[in-house]
Design goal:
With 105 residues, the chain is an all-alpha fold. It folds into two domains: 1-37 and 85-105, no CATH class; 40-74, no CATH class. It has helices spanning 2-10, 14-20, 23-35, 40-43, 45-58, 85-104. Helix 1 crosses helix 2 (14-20) and helix 3 (23-35) packs antiparallel against helix 6 (85-104). The relative contact order is 0.12.
Length: 105
């Protein structure tokens, strides 16, 4: 499915994508996607968050905290959730190992 998503984002067919991108670059795109998801389903996160927070705020109790759109956007990384260098290193190792397996397999 990732091939279709990437091809759509880049404005080409899957066949065109696979004939112009090598497996190394495809793995890099997959790694980027795991860090920063893209695609049309991501575009609806903000409007959905606004609607959900509006409904929640209309129905909350007087003394409860107000909701923000971000409260309803589970894929949004919070400012405090910065990936450590070690986490990034682990992801890159996994990508490299996956690439080596494809080349050797």
């Amino acid at each position: 499915m990732f091939y279709f998503l990437l091809a759509k984002e880049l404005g080409m067919t899957v066949r065109q994508l696979l004939s112009t991108i090598d497996s190394k670059e495809l793995c890099e795109w997959a790694g980027y996607y795991s860090l920063e998801p893209f695609g049309s389903f991501r575009d609806s996160d903000v409007p959905a968050g606004i609607i959900a927070s509006t409904l929640a705020n209309c129905n909350r109790t007087k003394n409860s905290r107000s909701f923000k759109p971000e409260d309803f956007m589970p894929f949004l990384k919070k400012q405090t959730e910065v990936m450590s260098g070690e986490e990034l290193k682990d992801i890159m190792k996994q990508l490299a190992q996956g690439q080596e397996g494809k080349q050797n397999g």
